[in-house]
């Protein structure tokens, strides 16, 4: 501790963070970087593989509920009118009546706006390999045979210009490039995580998901962090997992890190807990607003309280889809084919429009924007238009019937059935053996449950999603702690993280909506959202880096040899543990 009081934080990160890789996977993006970096690489969490059977791009996710029922449509329109009354803007039917004549919209070919952050167009990914020599480092080991065969065929020829027969498709494409593949190209696009879980379905089996996860992460380590395979044993991994992950998912990812990617050791931290340390706090209600899932969890003195966890099945991408629906309803969207299910590049465009123009504020909110059309490998077309009601879509966080999330079939529930908890100390607690479980099914006589005696005893079960809005979830989470002193502290220590947390006007909206949601019989009259010291998009990643750098004892780290030989068993002590000493170290670091 004396050393921590005198050392400069940047020096500590440089000294101890050069061989620590922090990995924070999410539904839309994965944030990866060395602990010594100021910010991580943020890469779309997807992969595209060339397919000989498919004539055009196929999004290999799962069954999507793209058909909105009549009841859902009515509920969406009702939610719009409720939001409109709060924001003091015209109701949905009023808007339609006033806009019976279509708005003027024009195609702007060659339009070159000065603000490229808002209106810049995406370009299609080049899926062909023309220069075989320069393509070798970009291809995975599975593609070397294809390249070698092509080189053998071309040996002895003196032609400098590649012919049509010599042009090869790239076998694997990663990250944002995968999302920008034209619908006419023969690729299968796969998103590795959906709605906070591994994207396993009857169309995307578990083994395929894990192989793609390994391929993408291996590419990131090589291309972004420049860590070759033979040097991986010199590095350790810090895995910052979302609260939505189940134990089986964490174990499979640990196996990829230690067995396949060959890290020497690894440790697991919860995303919400890491976010608290990333902002230099010890107690807070962490609200994680991700791309496809929102979650709430309360942290007290550096310890996550498991019974306060809430998961909401909507996020930033749902707001983007709602933006498209709103504009089409008001006839402000150009007459172009925008389809986010079959053309992922359209979702990239909608996300950019949402981030640039959507905010929460009273009164009518319009903006002149450039919308792009992407048609079958043709250059992007630009359409200048006036978008309206831009403050309505983000209000869907509080009124989720406005969003109507797509329904994804969940993985089989038995897949998550696990008696070992990777995120809690359980080895020193004795629980009665279940009479219905045969001997030898799981090691020891303990069942991995939470370690806090003052919280209700619950059985291990898959995490369920809540059917409420954000304000109700926050209020329910905090009130479930059961102690008025802690409740008051948490209501004044709400922390918003995730990409959606950057939405303008969201902080006062959360404060107002949560305050109105607290029951009148509760003696709580103040709600405050704390300003984030770090970019909310990667504050959890930063917290994981701080925890890894300051964990001098490394008692909870899992070593590669131990994992491959024995895995983790209850009683081994090789689990993540919330440490008051570690929290004190982080506080000293933040305040120095």
UniProtKB/TrEMBL annotation:
SMART domains per the UniProt record, alphabetical? ACTIN
Xref: Gene3D superfamilies: 3.30.420.40, Actin, Chain A, domain 4
Q: Which segments of the protein form a coiled coil according to its record?
A: none
Read off the Pfam families from this record. Answer: Actin
Q: Which domain of life is it from?
A: Eukaryota
Q: Where is this region: Disordered?
A: 132-159
Bias type Polar residues, positions: 132-144
- Similarity annotation: Belongs to the actin family. ARP8 subfamily.
What's the name of the protein?
Answer: Actin-related protein 9
Task: Give the source species.
Answer: Gossypium stocksii
């Amino acid at each position: 501790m004396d050393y921590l009081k005198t050392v400069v934080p940047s020096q500590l990160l440089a000294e101890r963070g050069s061989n620590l890789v922090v990995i924070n996977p999410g539904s839309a993006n994965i944030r990866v970087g060395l602990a010594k970096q100021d910010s991580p690489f943020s890469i779309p969490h997807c992969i595209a593989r060339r397919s000989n059977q498919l004539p055009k791009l196929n999004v290999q996710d799962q069954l999507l509920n793209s058909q909105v029922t009549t009841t859902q449509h009515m509920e969406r329109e009702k939610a719009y009118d409720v939001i409109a009354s709060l924001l003091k803007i015209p109701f949905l039917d009023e808007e339609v009546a006033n806009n019976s004549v279509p708005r003027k919209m024009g195609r702007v070919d060659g339009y070159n706006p000065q603000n490229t952050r808002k209106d810049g167009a995406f370009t299609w990914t080049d899926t062909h390999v023309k220069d075989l020599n320069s393509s070798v480092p970009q291809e995975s080991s599975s593609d070397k045979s294809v390249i070698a065969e092509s080189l053998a065929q071309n040996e002895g020829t003196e032609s400098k210009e590649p012919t049509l027969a010599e042009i090869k498709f790239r076998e694997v494409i990663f990250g944002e490039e995968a999302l920008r593949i034209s619908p006419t190209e023969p690729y299968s696009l796969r998103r590795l995580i959906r709605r906070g879980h591994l994207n396993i379905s009857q169309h995307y089996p578990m083994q395929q998901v894990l192989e793609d996860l390994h391929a993408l992460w291996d590419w990131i380590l090589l291309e972004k962090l420049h860590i070759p395979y033979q040097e991986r044993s010199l590095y350790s991994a810090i895995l910052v997992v979302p609260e939505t992950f189940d134990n089986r998912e964490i174990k499979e990812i640990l196996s990829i890190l230690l067995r396949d990617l060959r890290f020497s050791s690894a440790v697991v931290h919860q995303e919400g807990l890491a976010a608290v340390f990333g902002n230099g706090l010890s107690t807070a209600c962490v609200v994680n607003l991700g791309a496809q899932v929102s979650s709430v969890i309360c942290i007290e003195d550096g310890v996550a309280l498991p019974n306060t966890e809430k998961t909401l099945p909507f996020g930033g991408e749902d707001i983007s889809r709602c933006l498209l629906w709103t504009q089409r309803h008001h006839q402000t969207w150009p007459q172009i084919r925008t389809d986010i299910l079959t053309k992922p590049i359209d979702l990239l465009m909608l996300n950019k429009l949402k981030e640039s123009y959507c905010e929460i504020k009273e009164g009518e909110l319009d903006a002149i924007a450039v919308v792009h059309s992407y048609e079958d490998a043709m250059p992007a077309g630009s359409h200048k238009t006036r978008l309206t009601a831009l403050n309505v879509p983000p209000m869907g966080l509080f009124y989720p019937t406005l969003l109507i999330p797509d329904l994804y079939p969940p993985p089989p529930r038995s897949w998550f059935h696990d008696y070992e908890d990777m995120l809690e100390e359980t080895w020193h607690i004795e629980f009665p053996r279940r009479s219905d479980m045969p001997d030898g099914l799981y090691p020891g006589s303990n069942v991995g449950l939470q370690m806090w005696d003052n919280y209700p005893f619950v059985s291990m079960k898959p995490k369920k999603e809540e059917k409420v809005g954000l304000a109700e979830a926050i209020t329910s989470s905090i009130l479930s702690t059961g102690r008025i002193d802690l409740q008051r502290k948490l209501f004044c220590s709400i922390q918003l993280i995730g990409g959606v947390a950057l939405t303008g006007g969201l902080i006062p909206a959360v404060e107002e909506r949560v305050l109105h949601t607290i029951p009148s019989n509760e003696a709580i009259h103040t709600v405050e959202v704390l300003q984030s010291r770090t970019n909310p998009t990667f504050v959890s990643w930063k917290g994981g880096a701080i925890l890894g750098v300051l964990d001098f004892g490394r008692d909870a780290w899992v070593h590669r040899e131990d994992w491959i030989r024995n895995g983790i068993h209850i009683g081994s002590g090789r689990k993540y543990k919330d440490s008051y000493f570690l929290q004190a170290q982080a506080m000293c670091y933040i305040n120095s």
